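Deliverable D4.2, example record:
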Amino acid sequence: MQIKFEQLPQRLKQQPPALLWISGDETLLVQEACDLVRKFARDQGFGEREVIDAGTGFDWNQLLLSNNSLSLFAERKLIDLRASKLDEPARAVLVEYLANPNPDNLMLLTTGKIEKAAQSSKWFTSIESKALFCQIWPVSEQQLPQWIEQRLRARGLGIEREALQLLCDRVEGNLLAAAQELEKLQLHVSGTTITAASVLDLVADNARFTVFTLVDACLGGNTERALKILEHLQAEGDEPLALLAMLGRELRNLSAMLADMSRGQSARDVVQAHRVWGNKVQLTERALQVHNQRSLMDLLERARIVDQTVKGLLKRNVWDELSSLVLNFSNPRLLVGVI
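Output generated by the structure prediction step:
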């Protein structure tokens, strides 16, 4: 059974299956989900906890041995399994484990994000049908203000609107830093309402951006955000060619999708055929509405100018050229031709 992170506490109150699977790349939320499971296990009398790190070269048969062995210190045991990836031997062992689970054991499996394509596979459905699968999704830019407000309410605190926006700007993309800054604010602010002055005084700039957030901002038409992300990436020392490669790939993908649409396919069918998943579907469909082949060719020409500038063939400022590319990618109405 698949559930959301928010459903986990309630679902644990019911009789859980033998395997609780937490999947995702958001460190803080994965850690909190695992903490919920561990607390549940302790409360239910799983007095022993065996931690297994299934890294490269791990013999998955050890998991079956652990499942069948008697607990040394308690009648019931939590098997805390951390796996970097689930290869064929891992999948086979997990299927075998679930075919005959030890009623005195509970397994907590932690992995990275499981891609959408993998979730349609036979091995995944075989495991998920007998487990509780909780996929942890990152908190998006739009969800971050509500996430912060909920955390503050749990601490008995409120926050001014301006202070909330400042806090979001300083911690976006870095939930671990956000949680730490909220703890700091709780300790140091007076009263029950956080002000903008408090945020400016106490909260460091912990915003974490990647080329993927840059691409998403361009696809979504959020020009101000896209330029802000590019500024952060420049300050963090990101290589212009690496950023250019991702932007160029996205432009070529959009061009290929538009070509498919010109042959009568719908935008949704084209997006699925090009293996666009999750939150990126809506962003890509928006980009397909505002761009055409002419605008994409102009942008690819601008990308070529950036490439030549990086390589010293043109005497221009590479970050100015990248900014121009990002500006026009996010808002093609600004395109006036390549100089």
